[in-house]
Amino acid sequence: MRLTCDVVVVGAGMVGAACALYAGRAGLDVILVDRGPVAGGTTGAGEGNLLVSDKEPGPELDLALLSGRLWGELAREFGEAVEYEAKGGVVVASSPGGLAALERFAAGQRAAGVVAESVAGDGLYDLEPHLAPGLPGGVHYPQDCQVMPTLAAAHLIRASGARLLTGRTVTDILRAPDGSVRGVRTDRGDIHAPAVVNAAGTWGGELAALAGVHLPVLPRRGFVLVTEPLPRRVRHKVYAADYVADVASDSAALQTSPVVEGTAAGPILIGASRERVGFDRTFSLPVVRALAAGATRLFPFLERVRAMRSYLGFRPYLPDHLPAVGPDSRVPGLYHACGHEGAGIGLATGTGHLIAQALTAKTPDLDLAPFRPDRFAEEAV
Question: Which helix or strand (DSSP H or E) is residue 306 part of?
Fold first, then answer.
């Protein structure tokens, strides 16, 4: 049987789920295809963060603020089913100089619409009583939230009304004689549609290449350490101020900065590491030790807590740290929604909303120019 639809979304992670949801709610017939299961890639290895705290003023922060509003709407719809928690974030400085730099960063964010509340040293311990003593202060971000990413992706897909085809690998982008998209070829047959959305995450560059275009998505590996279940002792997402610099870095070398957060289920999640090592899935004891050391500097009680497991994932990284979102001028009918690095869970709703607006020829709520997929120098594909 020939499969036809209005739009094929490739990738059943959080971004693909959001694209399917908003496209479906815009009245489009959607097929969502993935070679693996729902949330089988970066989404399933994520912590579920919906953050504004780590983003400097600019296009990504604008996308995060739009996404946060949309996540708030979805939280009223799905709520506990996706473990949505509006718990806020606390960014901690370890020195007076670091606090001054953090304050300057927060001042710029406030001007862009972020709620960023300065916290003097003593006030930190009202927010997080178990923090290490003697810290000079930090900034509280009440807009930071969290979801359980695998659950959230599944609920968004179910609500989208899309036909979900898992276990199908896209092997080619079908093109008409004029070069425009007319669907995808998979290892289990063709799917015909006038529009294809590339939500393939770390494999977004490979999918773009099937359409003959260059999109330089690279995987950036990160580990997460998971503790035994505990009563709630970490109330917010808490991280050291140097985490922001690590996120913005272009370095391929290993970087770690402590990020600690509790979960609804009890375990504490500890990150964050970043390194570009391709798709190497080898366990790294030095990285996990560095994560544990950083976490215990922030929360000394963790020295007495057992780590139950660790896992790793790959963030889809683009060289300028902005995702590719919107139509590809080089291939009519091809749209991209990938390259969000570690922020894809949080940015998914805004991305899906903007993609649906583009698919239905509506004026997008944000200027898509900074996210243009063709902004990178061409290479032979």
Answer: none
